[in-house]
Amino acid sequence: PYDGWYLVFVHDYPGSVFQGANAVTVNIYLNGALTNTYNFSMSGEDSDYYVAKIHWPTGQIVDCSGGNPC
Q: pLDDT tens digits, residue range 21-40?
């Protein structure tokens, strides 16, 4: 891995079957240990949800607000 910030996000790609809001869970593991769990709802085709950014190698995690990159 390269040192620096890594962005974690979920993308609802266009062409998926739209059935309203999707319940999403994202788990972040660092060095094999669960460090953060995020639960949220996503709706809308071709939309992004920005979950967090992670600094490597420090392991610092910054939560994002969902709609915009943090």
A: 888 999 999 999 999 999 99
Contact 55, 5 (CB under 8 A): yes
- What is the DSSP secondary-structure string of 30-62? ETTEEEEEEEEEE-STTEEEEEEEEEETT--EE
Distance CA 16, CA 23 (A): 15
Task: Give pTM, 2 decimals.
Answer: 0.85
Tell me the average pLDDT of the chain. Answer: 90
- Which residues have C-beta within 8 Å of that of residue 17, sequence separation ≥ 6? none
User: What separation in angstroms does the CA of 4 have from each of 24, 39, 57, 58?
Assistant: 26, 25, 7, 9
